[in-house]
Amino acid sequence: MYNLKKGKGTFKGNIGECMFKLTKKKLFLTRFHSKYKVLNLISKFLSFEQKSFLKNNWFSLDGIELVDSKIIIYEIKTKNRYRKRLKYRPKTTSNTLDLYNHAIQLGFIVKIVFVWLEKDWDYSLEFKDFNPSILHCDKSKPYDKK
Q1: pLDDT at 12 over 70
Q2: Bridge partner list, 109
Q3: CA angle, 120 then 124 then 126, to 5°
Q4: Is the sign of the CA dihedral 74, 79, 85, 88 positive or negative?
Q5: Are β-strands 63-67 and 70-80 bridged in parallel, bridged antiparallel, or unpaired?
Q6: pLDDT in tens, 39-55
Q7: Cβ neighbours for 139, distance < 8 A, ≥ 6 positions apart
Q8: What is the dihedral sign for C-alpha 82, 87, 93, 95?
Q9: Cα gap 146→139, rounded to integer Å
Q10: Which residues of 27-40 are buried (b: 16+ CB within 10 A; e: fewer)?
């Protein structure tokens, strides 16, 4: 028998993103939705700079949601829930931090969502406003923009 909680890497993250999508009817997961279709749907709520930002950084973002004429960008982190809370912070890169700071400057709302894997396939969500101190800045990856 396999245990999802013991999985590492992006596979568990992909599953966490899909679990989060189940709770948000209007959420677009960038890996599963065409940027051209989504941008066409939400373009009337975007400035030229915001539209360019989304077009250029589509696959660097986890999720996008339109709420009351405002765009929320989500960074989704999937974590295991343990009895004792661990003190480590989820990893990200400096390029990702720069990306979300730029999104905030452009007027987007940026949230970090923690998908907590509980017992027996239960999961819970924790929402936080984007703050770089919540994340641990890891070394850049080969696919990060220079």
Answers
A1: yes
A2: 72
A3: 155
A4: negative
A5: antiparallel
A6: 999 999 999 999 999 99
A7: 93
A8: positive
A9: 13
A10: bbbbeeeebeebbe
Lookup: tokens for 71: 């765009």
Interatomic CA distance for residues 84 and 118, integer angstroms: 13
**Cβ atoms of residues 74 and 113 within 8 Å:** yes
**91 alpha carbon, distance to own chain's centre:** 12
Number of C-alpha atoms within 13 angstroms, CB side, residue 125?
Answer: 17
pTM of the model: 0.85
Structure tokens belonging to residue 84? 């004792």
User: How far, in Å, CA of 57 to CA of 143, rounded?
Assistant: 13
Q: At what angle do helices 48-57 and 94-105 cross, to 10 degrees?
A: 160
How is residue 132 written in tokens? 């770089």
